[in-house]
Amino acid sequence: MLQQLGHLPMGWLLIALIAVFASIAFFAGRVRAERILLSGEQSLHSRPNYHGYFVAMWALVPAVLVALAYAIGAEGISRNQLVSELPPAFDLLSDAEMKTYLDSVAQAALAREDTGTDLVFTAVTHRYLEIRGSLNIGALALMVIGALGGLIFSRRRLGTSFRARSLVERGMETVLFLCAAVAIATTVGIVTSLLYESIQFFRAVPIWDFLFGTRWNAQTEAEFGALPLFFGTFTIALIAMLVAAPIGLFSAIYLSEYAGPKARGWIKPILEILAGIPTVVYGFFALLVVAPAVRGLAIWINETLINIGLTTEPLLAAQPTSALAAGLVMGIMVIPFVSSLSDDVINAVPQTLRDGAYALGATKSETVRNVVVPAALPGIIAALLLAVSRAIGETMIVVMAAGKSARISMDPTSDLTTITVQIVSLMTGETGFDDPKTLSAFALGLVLFAVTLLFNVIALRVVQKYREKYD
Amino acid sequence: MTDPAPSTFSSPEAIKRLKRRRAADVRFRYYGMGAIVLALGALVMLALSIGSQAVSAATYHVARYDVTLDRAVIAPPGEDTPEEISRNVDGFWSLVRNNLLETFPEADLDRASRTEASEFITRLAVLPAARKVAAEPQLIGNEMTVSAPLNDDLDLYLKGQAFPERRVRVGSLSSASQQEAGLARLEGQGAFTPILSAITSLEADGADLSEGSVLLTAGSSTGRLSDLQPDAASLELLTGTLDDFRSGNATARIIALPEAQRVVSDQQIAWTLALKEMGRISREPRWSLLTNSDSTYPELAGGLAALVGSLFTMLVTALVAIPIGILAAVYLEEFAPKNRLTDFIEVNINNLAAVPSIVFGLLGAAVYLNFLGMPRSAPLVGGLVLALMTFPVVIIASRAALKAVPPSVRSGALAIGASQMQTVFHHVVPLAAPGIFTGAILGMARALGETAPLLLIGMVAFVGDVPKGPTDESTVMPVLIFTWSNNAERAWEPMTSAMIVILLAVLLLMNGLVVFLRRKYERRW
Amino acid sequence: MDTDHTPQAAGTVTPPTADALPAAAPRIDCRDINVFYGPTQAIHNVSLSFPDRAVTALIGPSGCGKSTFLRCLNRMNDTIESCRVDGQILMDGQNINDHSIDAVLLRSRVGMVFQKPNPFPKSIFDNIAYGPRIHGLASSREDLDAIVEKSLRRAGLWEEVKDRLQAPGTSLSGGQQQRLCIARAIAVRPEVILMDEPCSALDPVATARIEELIDELRKRYCIVIVTHSMQQAARVSQRTAFFHLGNLIEMGETEQIFTNPREKRTEDYITGRFG
Q1: Does one domain contain both A313 and A459?
Q2: Most Cβ neighbours (<10 Å): which of A83, A103, A266, B500?
Q3: A222 shares a domain with A151
Q4: Which of A256, A346, A360, A369 to mutate to test the interface with C (most CBs of C within 10 A)?
Q5: The total number of structural domains that make up chain A
Q6: How far apart, in whole angstroms, are the C-alpha atoms of residue C224 and residue C46?
Q7: Residue pLDDT, tens place only, C226-265
Q8: Interface mutation target, options C75, C102, C153, C217, chain B, most CBs of B under 10 Å
Q9: Angle at CA B372, nearest 5°, toward B368 and B375?
């Protein structure tokens, strides 16, 4: 019996119950309010609907709390209970092995799989289902009690002078605030999860070795010197910025200073298409077109240099995936980030400054170069910083086109790896969370988060200052 | 200090200097135009390179095999339930292969040829036929035409994308006579001159033809040429009869790539050409791209599972990110007191919008998978991760929309005694709704194209079945693109491009909707 | 435009409304100026000349076209796409609207000061030095230093800023910024200085200083000033032109305009009945 209850579709059940109780409570409150209205000579402070909402709110809050507690805690509680009941022989298992074992138990139990001939496993599975079943029943009962309790308690409070609306509105405001607080929760979640796993990693690998070690070989040899990754990330971002900064900036200047409104109306949205293309598409483009082209060019340069006798060995690595290919395509991707924001700030430069330059007899390009761009410089720098942060955090292009060899090489046609590439390759394997391999991904993530955050904060500050100056 | 004489309009120095400055001015303008051209050029190149590949994947070659559904093969006693029939790939496949061997008796001769014939059609390609028969058992024992896509390499060959091939017409042949050791002798005055001159020109371009093949096709017969002379050549018949060469026009195919380095052998080319000549191969639109799920065989693979996976993922994202985003925006814009806490929330939102997406993947892996023990590879988890990424975007867009509603609306409503909550939800939010929804759609479009965080929560696994719910193992469109692009076979390139075009089409549709909504509801206060 | 018919000595042709002018040759002579913004006409057939070494004030209610007219004199209207200017503006006998005249060179001879002080986001020194640099007026660093000092002295700003020439121009007070802009205009050695309500953003003390400065500058330059304030026009100008709805209503000695206007509308405006 309990085992059958272990199979209850709790997710749907809880949602359905919450909906049912909310509607019941709403009508209970509303009907009572209407009755008061009909019987009494006094009018109500709030409209009957608000009384309904009030009662529904009281029923909803305990029910939702129970559901949330169940969603977060049920699995952990049942596992802990199960572990405490396991025979002493299981104590030999390490934490990781125990987790794998429990995973297989949970999977087998919930999938109603045939557990095979292993009698111990079958027994454990059944026990797991029993614990789960009793938890399910407990949760459902708690929810019913909570919801009904809230309903009955709140329904009593209704009356002619009862300020249902203000209370409902205060409740709603709390909900609104909680929604806004999700932003904090997310940040806290990111920071704590990155820090927590990173600290575990730094227990195994000294932070100094991680940040300044020059050998990265996480997959096979447990060498965690991340300097080559930082180098690769930096190099590719640099190549990207060498493409995006001039093109983006000149595009912005052309759009805001030279193009007529009609051309601007066409070109600007088309440029912004570049920002809307999924990065995996850019990655494929890099793989399909740019990387072979870069390789062909590098081979041609090698051959030419050898032919004219400047070198005897090939100068460039000319690998099938290369930092240059990834950087070029990433540069294309970040063009709109540079051009869009730069365009905004250039447009914000007051016309009087331009007039002042023209009145001195400056030509248009002199006005732009000597007056408009310097005036917009903080904003342009912010745009470039945001673009750099984009380029550093970009994943798919480098995963597909930059390669996986962790090395420090000045040759842009060799393949370099980046922080993001390594995070992906470390996290897509089937390894547990206590493996230094997995943990190192979090340490890399922490570095990535810190660096991009720094860039963003500076950029946002600069933009804010700039806005204040000209608004 | 005295003023020098004022410069005039036409002093030679001034003119010279002015010329230089004007030239710099023009140059600067060209830099700007050059930048725009480069940026747009990159976009065009991207579109063209992917588009042209995708076009080739939009159609594929399907071969037809007329088979008799032999009960003993496809539904032997004891294995004749519909379920077993639908799984009897081997049975159906052997029917199809036997049909092929009947068509080309020479293939039945030795093991190697039989293997080559077997490669014509992937085993799993008969699955639709098996399912159809399982659904309609009365078909058993009757004739049936089984359509199955051609092996991806042959498909590419027919599309001319497998390797370079030069085709030339040969002159009319005067005689074709059988000689010893399976060789035939073809003769014709100057018949082979075109081949020889084509070979010369190819070799002049640097091609090495020493191990290449020259195939001669007439009607449904094909043979390999050797011993080429202007008026005569030896022919090793690969399929068909010599009669075809006596009567019809023959076409030679010159392939420089040695047979050993090709994925398609001369024999397979011969059979493919013969089937095509018989009208049994046709080029059809590849609907399977939308109706099939992933497969290890490019000719069978499709994006249905990924499409459905994307749909579930987006559903979860939308259900979580849009309400939370809108309500948070309403709070921050309409209710939030100006204090440290709300300032902190604002800073958080701005920064979250710029956190690299992969960090959200790490968060999802650590919190949802490891801490909360949610299932790997599930749209539920993917959707929740993307929701965290999307809701700051929704908040920012919604706040802009709310800000655009003039204060007079609020004062108007407050003045007739509405509470602040009523004012906001009855008046302000409805007026801001178009802006809020366009922001939400844009956020969803971004989430739909996102790949990296989903890789970290295991959505990269091979998924052969269409997911039935948000907790089933699943993948999404961009991840499928990534997976396909990693596959080695050449045929995946156009397939990947086609999938990209589908994804971009969906994104374009969403953005089009945004433009439409903006045009329709745009309001200037 | 047919410059062939233009007599070389432009001053000998007397504009119709200028019969009360002193005999001095005008620095700028405008004939039949019409200005259009797209389809709407902003200036109707204005003919007006400006004498050298004197201040001419353009007054009139807002929107009467006086600023637009002023911007014709150094072709600042070129920067506005929809704007079209017809008519002849003669300077040294040459029509400045002619295609052969480069606006860039013209503006180096006709400087301009704007309503709001608009120093460039550069140092005080670079603000002044910018014009001489682009026009190649200084052959050496010492030359440039001299030009900067002279310009600042003429603008009456030298004593206040000589110790902080590298401070940003925006760090000055509003009145100082406006004098900086005047110094910037002087540094290019113009012959004409146009001022578009130069004091409207300043407090009375700063305004008084600028007015003193204008009076000082009158000895060297032809100055045209647009102003809203009739008191200011009376204080600084020798000649006044009254604009209304894009038409030049009356032009004459400042004293005569303010004491004995010939036109009813001028009188109404000056006595505050409209505007």
Answers
A1: yes
A2: B500
A3: no
A4: A360
A5: 2
A6: 15
A7: 998 888 999 999 999 999 999 999 999 999 999 999 988 8
A8: C102
A9: 65
Inter-chain CB proximity B452 and A187 less than 8 Å: no
Tally of domains in chain C: 1
A184 assigned to some structural domain: no
| Token reading at B474 | 């699943």
Q: Both tokens of residue C102?
A: 């480069």
Residues B32, A187: C-beta atoms closer than 8 Å:
no
Where residue C64 sits, what CATH number does that domain have?
3.40.50.300
Residue B362: pLDDT band (50, 70, 90) is: very high
Which tens digit of pLDDT belongs to each residue from B297-332? 888 889 999 999 999 999 999 999 999 999 999 999
A220 and A83 within one domain:
no
Positions of E strands within A189-306 = 216-217, 223-224
Please tell me which of B354-358, C10-14, C268-272 the model is most confident about, judged by mean pLDDT: B354-358
Contact between B24 and B243 (Cβ < 8 Å): no
Among C197, C172, B29, C120, residue whose Cα is nearest residue A349:
C120
Interface of A with B in 309-368 (CB under 8 A): 332, 335, 339, 363-366, 368
* HSE (side-chain half, CA atoms, 13 Å) at C224: 28
Question: DSSP 3-state assignment of C42?
Answer: strand
Task: Give the nearest partner residue to B373 out of A75, A278, A423, using CB atoms.
Answer: A75
CA atoms of A142 and A150, how far apart (whole Å): 12
Same domain, A250 and A372: yes
Asked if A242 reaches chain B (Cβ–Cβ under 8 Å), the answer is no
The pLDDT of C25-41, averaged and rounded, is 89
What integer pLDDT is reported at residue B523 of this predicted model? 67
Report the 10 Å Cβ neighbour count for B248.
15
Count of positions (residues) in chain B = 525
Domain end marker among A162, A182, A197: A162
- Chain C CB contacts of A354 under 8 Å are 79
Q: What tens digit of pLDDT does each residue of B132-189 get?
A: 888 888 888 888 888 889 888 899 999 888 888 889 888 888 888 888 767 888 888 8
If asked whether residues A150 and A226 sit together in one domain, one would say no
Token pair listed for A414: 């060799």
CB contact under 8 A, A361 and C104: yes
Nearest residue of A to residue B422, measured between CA atoms:
A169
Q: Is B294 helix (H, G, I), strand (E, B) or coil?
A: coil
Beta-carbon separation of A363 and C118 below 8 A: no
Which domain does A94 fall in, by range?
Answer: 2-162
Quote the longest CA-to-CA distance of chain A.
Answer: 108
CA–CA min distance B226, chain A (Å): 35
Residue B244 has pLDDT above 90, yes or no: no
Domain boundary among A162, A183, A218: A162
Residues A28 and A113 in one domain: yes
ipTM of predicted assembly, 2 dp = 0.90
Supply the pLDDT for residue B68: 87
In a domain, A150, yes or no: yes
Q: For residue A289, what is the domain's CATH number?
A: 1.10.3720.10
Chains that touch B (3 or more CB pairs under 8 A): A, C
To test the contact with chain A by mutation, choose from C116, C120, C191 the residue with the greatest count of A C-beta atoms within 10 A, namely: C120
Question: Do the chains contact at C81 and A260, CB–CB below 8 Å?
Answer: yes
Say if the Cβ atoms of B352 and A179 lie within 8 Å: no
Q: Indicate if A148 and A242 belong to the same structural domain.
A: no
Q: Which pTM value belongs to this model?
A: 0.87
Would you say residue B75 has pLDDT above 60? yes
Which residue range is the domain that position C106 belongs to? Answer: 25-270
Across the interface, of B3, B4, B18, the residue whose CB is closest to C105 is B18
Task: Measure in Å the smallest separation between the Cα of A469 and chain B Cα atoms.
Answer: 20
The per-residue b/e assignment along B100-110, b for 16 or more CB within 10 angstroms, e otherwise, is: bbebbebbeee
- Candidates A187, A246, A460; nearest CB to B35: A246
